[in-house]
Amino acid sequence: MTSKEEAINRLRTILSKYVPQEALERLVDYIVRRGVHLRITRSRESKYGDYMHPHGDKQYHAISINGDIPHLFFLKVLLHEMAHLETYLKYKNSVRPHGLEWQTEYRNILIAYIDCFPDDIQTLLRKYTSKIPLSRSLASTLRKKLIHYGMEGEKDNAKTSQYQTLNDLIPGTEFHLVRKPNTTFTALERRRTRWLCRNKDNGQLYLVHGTSEIIATP
User: Fold this and answer.
1) CA pair distance 213, 70, nearest whole angstrom
2) In the chain, which ranges are continuous DSSP H helix?
C-alpha cells in the first residue's frame, strides 16, 4: 500500500467517527481532490468550524471543525466550510464571506448531500435551499434540529429544546453554554449574529453565536 493510500485510509477511519456513513466516501473524495488539510479540534466557544485559504507558506486549503458536536451537525458545519472553499476558488477575496456568492455555493453543496440527512431534515433543507438569499430563520431552525438530533440520540426531534439561546438574553446577563457548562460568561453586546461575551474565569473576550444554547445564571 502506498503512503497516499495509507493517508486516505487514515482520513476515512477518522472521519467515519464524525459524519453519517452515507456522506463518508463523498467527503473523503472531496477532501483528497481539493487537497484539504482537515483538522478536528477541541471545543471552541467562538465557532464550530472555519476555513482558511492558501497563504504564505501554507499553500493548501485548511478546514477545522469542533470534534465535540453531534455528527449530523458536524456534517452541516463541514459543508458550510466547503462552500467557503468553493467560493474562494471562484472569487478569491473579492466577495463578502456570507454573501450571495457563498450562499449559492452552500445551497448547491447542501442539495448534493441532502440524502445524507434524515427525512424530516431533508424536508427542511429543501425549504431552506429553495431560494437565495437563504433564510436566517430557517438556518437557525436547522441548526437547532441538528443539535437536537445529537442530544436525543437521533430519535424523534419533534420536541423543542429546553434551553434558552444567547439571543434571549439582555446585555449584562451571566450564563453557561450548554456545551461548556463549567464556564461562566457575561453577555456584553450583540453584534449582528454573534454576541461579544467575557469569560469570567480568565477575562478573555469571545464572539459567540446568538443561537448558542445557554443556561442563564440566577
Assistant:
1) 14
2) 3-15, 21-34, 71-91, 100-112, 119-128, 136-151
- Please state, rounded to an integer, the average pLDDT across all residues of the chain: 88
Classify residue 196 by burial, with Cβ atoms within 10 Å: 0-12, 13-18, 19+: middle
Instruction: Please state which CATH class domain 164-216 belongs to.
Output: mainly beta
Tell me the per-residue pLDDT of 115-157, one tens digit each, with 9 for 90 and over: 999 999 999 999 999 999 999 889 988 988 888 775 543 444 3
What are the angstrom distances between the C-alpha of 201 and each of 18, 106, 205? 30, 37, 11
Quick one: CA dihedral 155, 161, 163, 167, positive or negative? Answer: positive
pTM of the model: 0.74
> Which residue intervals of the chain bear CATH 2.30.30?
164-216
CB atoms closer than 10 angstroms to residue 64: 19
The answer to whether 36 touches 30, Cβ cutoff 8 Å, is yes
Q: How many CB atoms lie within 10 A of CB 185?
A: 26
Distance from the Cα of residue 89 to its chain's centroid? 20
pLDDT at 162: 58
Cis peptide before 218 (omega within 30 of 0): no
**Are 28 and 15 in contact, with CB atoms under 8 Å apart?**
yes
Report the C-alpha gap between 183 and 141 in whole angstroms. 26
Question: How many Å is the Cα radius of gyration of the chain?
Answer: 18
Angle at 144 (CA atoms; ends 143, 150), nearest 5 degrees: 95
